[in-house]
Amino acid sequence: MSEQSTHAPAVGTSYIRTDLEGKVLGTAEYTADIALPNMLHARVLRSPHPHANILGIEIGSATKLDGVFDVLTPFNVPEGKVAPDVPILDSRVRFVGDEVAVVAAVDIDQAKAAIDLIDVCYEVLPFSTNVHDSLNSASFPIHSEGNLVNGGPLIESRGSIKEGFDQADYVVEDSFTTPDHHPASLEPRAALASWHGTRLTVWKPSRGIHADKNILASALGLSPNNIAVVGPAMGAGYGSKDETRTSVMAALLSIRTGRPVKLELDREEEFLAGRRRHSTYTEIKMGLKKDGTITAVHAKTIMDTGAYLSSGPGVVRRAGQGILYLYKCANVKYEGQLVYTNTPTAGSYRALGAPQGHFALESLSDKASEILNMDPLEFRFKNHVGPEGQPGERTTPRNQIIDTQPVEGGVPFSSNELRQCLKLGAEAIGWDRRDYIENAAGPIRRGIGMSMFIYRGGPGGQSNAEISLDQDGLFTLNVGFMDVGEGSSTVVIQMAADTLGIPPAMVRINAGHTDKTPESPMTAGSTLTFSAGHAAMQAAKDLKDAIINASLKLIGLGDSEGLYLTPNGVKSKCGESISFLDIVHNAGPIKTLASVTPGSKDYIVNSFGAHFAEIEVDTETGHIEIIKYIAVHDSGRIINPRLAEGQVRGGVSQMMGFTFLEDMEIDPHSGVALNASFLEHKSPTIMEYPQIEVIFADSIDPIGPFGAKSLGEPPCIAPAPTIANALYHATGVRINDLPLTPDSVLLAMKNLL
Amino acid sequence: MDSHLTSDRVDMDDNETTTKFIVNGREHSLKIDNRDTLLDILRDHLRLTGAKKGCDLGECGACTVLLDGKVVNSCQILAARIKDKDIRTVEGLSQNETLHPLQLAFIENDGGQCGYCTPGFIMAAYPLFESEEEPSTEEIKLSLAGNLCRCNAYGSIIDSVAYALEIKTNE
Ligand code: FES
Ligand code: FES
Hints:
- The complex is a heterodimer of chains A (753) and B (171).
- With 753 residues, chain A is α+β, with helices and mostly antiparallel strands.
- Chain A is built from 19 helices and 28 strands.
- In chain A, strands 3-7-1-14-11-12-13 form a 7-stranded mixed beta sheet, sandwiched between helices. A 5-stranded mixed beta sheet of chain A has the order 9-17-16-15-10, with helices on both faces. Chain A has a 4-stranded mixed beta sheet with strand order 18-26-27-28, with helices on both faces.
- In chain A, strand 15 and strand 16 form a beta hairpin.
- By secondary structure, chain B is an alpha+beta fold.
- Chain B is built from 5 helices and 5 strands; from the N terminus they run ββαβββαααα.
- In chain B, a hairpin with a 2-residue loop joins strand 1 and strand 2.
- Chain B is globular and about 50 Å long.
- Chains A and B meet through helix 1, helix 3, helix 8 and helix 17 of A and helix 2, helix 3 and helix 5 of B.
- One FE2/S2 (inorganic) cluster binds next to loops of chain B.
């Protein structure tokens, strides 16, 4: 921030979300809200079988129906692929709900009517709805390479766990499971495609329009230059709205019929054909010295990726991050298996594998502290990874950027305020009274629990930003990323405005169209503020220089030293000034483009935090009530406190679903999802919303833009183990299988007696 | 396979009736298919897309509008039920560029993240705003319990509605 600035900086203030006005007026346009003249409506025929070969499809009567324009089947679509294991349509279906055929018709009723007239001849195959059956050597392969992805686990390790366990006085171990957790964003997937002779335009909810453009190009065999992807407002996705067949099918239908085609999934389809959080089975083991030192950690996770791979390999890696890095330990090993089943596909969902891995790790840590007769908080104070990182040797060559989820030791963090988070949280919840909580007579038991986390995030891929001073004397930030509801547009505007030294209201944003924006990475892995922020700052810095240079000539000054930007224009120390309008009128609009690859060759950039909860358990009903919830985060400098707080509160509440309620149930006999609706897949409502107090640690990351680190996903990691640990404290019951439904609490209490 | 995935109607009989109704103060007389829902009529015929289709099953509240002043899930109202009715949607709240206090409150308190649920929440809160009562936080929550926000912006939604009620009392 320039000292010469004549107005207050925007970074650090709760500048109002830039796109909220349209949302409250009802004018913000989401994909399904867009209609084009002559538009056709598409509907998908989905598989009733969990696993089958399609031997033939009879579409004659469907195509003859009035108003039906086209029917896609596996036998009439081009060979392209949506993903390595997902053709445009496949003659093999792998879960109940998998795409079989698609109809385009004048309206949705005709499309549905046509769907009913399609006759499919299936050869039903053996199927498996859980990882254990899939891994059984006698099981039928779901993909040609077998049911275990890559034929073996992903293995990451540091030191020697054998040596570590040999040194241990105690070994504590347990196993944990987490459910099929569905993001179920309120906006179901939709796509609108329009083909104009040579050029395709696709409107779709997207977390990466440039990435989606490339997928469409390769699936359809078109040049990326002939495709524009437009990302309208998005009814969120939490990571789950990566590419599926939806937009490819709409595009192909538009190309074949020459008319715009809209395909909207309904709620049940969004549950089935969307993406869910991988369910997991984890065995974890920790070696401990009598004084509480951790000598080894070893975990094995099996993740259910469902019918297709999606982003599974990334997710399985991230489930190991806490295990490998949260506690100071020289000997760690993580093995992650990714397994196909005949169930809806798992993929990216906010915080990826971290909530699953941390649930196992942080539950086990509480068990470890009990064996040691140590307070669980003290155990964390003793063992948490510090700013210096892990013991061991750096293996990344000195001139290379450090992985944000490393295994190697010997690399410090750019900033790590985990200790501060523990302290602040303990104070806020009143940890001191934990040992003295007195329960009144009656069924209610009170308890306090906590857990902590580490998360990568921060530096992402190469990011570009363009910024201009326009004819009207205002600024436009041109970026290719998508604000998926998390507020990234707003915080990036704040950063650009402060870099320029002007109020954020003078900066507009132009995003969401591949033709009009420079390439940007996806909004994924909590990297956007960091990566796009750096690009925007660089572009703004360059623009500021360019504007000052242009005004030098116009004011008639010889050197740029004393010039600075104000809301009204450029000023010199001696009082000369020129307005932005005069600058553009004389010098024309000025534009700069910056491209940055953020990251560090010396430090790991990670975010940290600790959550604390006080709960009441009704031992007669099994109901758990949250009395107080404290979320403390080290996300570096907070660019926009209100937006940041909203992210944390929303993330915690969203994970109350994972903790207490949500599990997509698949009938093992038929492969049918039993609760693919909001009514049956229970999500938290406003009635369940607990008071959540958010505290941000005092932290400024030396590498992050304006000192910021990642924030979007981290709030989702700690809620489940925090509540499970509080439940144990309240009742003496430890539940290793999420969700913690009243039934499971009651059953566990009964078993305790 | 559940019925939502297969067709629910094939007949192409002429099911259209001319129906009169008022939306946001404007009278409409439209030939509509009896099988259409109010949500479809708003979105497809009148191009008022503020009400969203989150489920089409009455489970999420994204399609909330007012029907003769009462909060309804418009996806559950069949065409026959809107004859001569007075309908209000989120688009009808602001008056000549001036935001309704509820809309203002949602902006100032960051009451929406992705915003897909926002029109529904605002309409669900509307009768509360109009009533003479001074609702408690618990009552605010109860009146919004039929609306889902998957971003779980519930805390800011409660703040927004409470703030709107506060502006009203202070006026
Ligand atoms: S769309 Fe009407 S309640 Fe969900
Ligand atoms: S703000 Fe996204 S669903 Fe409510």
